[in-house]
Write a structure and sequence with these properties.
Layout lengths: L7 E4 L10 H10 L4 E4 L6 H15 L5 E5 L2 H6 L4 E4 L6 H8 L4 E6 L2 H5 L8 E4 L16 H11 L4 E4 L7 H6 L4 E4 L9 H13 L4
Parallel strand pairs: 1-2, 1-8, 2-3, 3-4, 4-5, 5-6, 6-7, 7-8
Bound molecules: 4-methyl-5-hydroxyethylthiazole phosphate and magnesium ion.
Family: Belongs to the thiamine-phosphate synthase family.
Keywords: Magnesium, Metal-binding, Plasmid, Thiamine biosynthesis, Transferase
Cofactor: Mg(2+)
């Protein structure tokens, strides 16, 4: 089943999660209301991605939260992840879709209106749009787009979008007002003393968004 809920999308970071680890952070965040979890570890090779991915899959089993693997198509397939997320500098969407098959969720990062408009809805299931704000979490991020840029990119994206980049509970209303279906967060949850409570605060704001 390809149904997914982008509303509270946790992107893991091994450094920011170092205190309790990515798996425990994900477990707590999902308990707090995270709907999707992305394993993103730029330093790990495929073997470590598979190892962590398997542990995450076990930890999230039965919760309904979707597990997405960043970049590493081999790891995504090996652990039968719910999905794969790629950036513009990774393989192209057609190649990725060919490798993962029709049933896995495919997410694609888009940073400009032209890239968002060029997305093929037959290949890609959601777009990750940003960065909304500058963020130290991703050293090489592109030019921040703000909420105005977010609204423009969301509007031309032929598939649902999740916003990313410097987002916290206080931004939830603006994210949804711009038309995004959710927010992806790293530092707002990872690395906080209480990832479950941090996620619950964001989830509470999402519940206030008019349907
Ligand atoms: N892509 C664009 S910004 C970003 C990624 C992975 C990092 C977002 O991290 P944070 O801590 O939520 O600002
Ligand atoms: Mg990438």
């Amino acid at each position: 089943m390809k149904a997914f809920d982008l509303s509270l999308y946790l992107v893991l970071d091994p450094d920011l999660c170092a205190r309790i680890g990515m798996v425990e952070t994900a477990r707590l965040a999902v308990a707090g209301g995270a709907t999707m979890v992305q394993l993103r570890d730029k330093q790990a090779g495929t073997a470590r991605m598979i190892e962590t991915g398997r542990a995450l899959k076990q930890a999230l089993g039965g919760t309904g939260a979707r597990l997405i693997v960043n970049d590493d198509v081999e790891a995504a397939i090996a652990i039968s992840a719910d999905g794969l997320h790629i950036g513009q500098e990774d393989m192209d969407a057609r190649t990725a879709r060919g490798l993962i098959g029709p049933d896995m969720i495919l997410g694609l990062s888009v940073e400009t209106e032209a890239l968002a408009a060029a997305v093929d809805r037959d290949l890609v299931d959601y777009t990750g749009v940003g960065p909304v704000f500058a963020t130290p979490t991703k050293a090489d991020h592109k030019q921040p787009i703000g909420f105005d840029g977010l609204a423009r990119l969301v509007q031309v994206s032929p598939v649902p979008s999740v916003a990313i980049g410097g987002l916290k509970a206080e931004h939830v209303a603006d994210v949804f007002a711009a038309g995004a279906k959710g927010l992806a967060v790293v530092s707002a949850v990872c690395g906080t003393p209480d990832p479950a409570a941090a996620t619950r605060r964001i989830a509470a704001e999402i519940r206030k968004v008019p349907a």
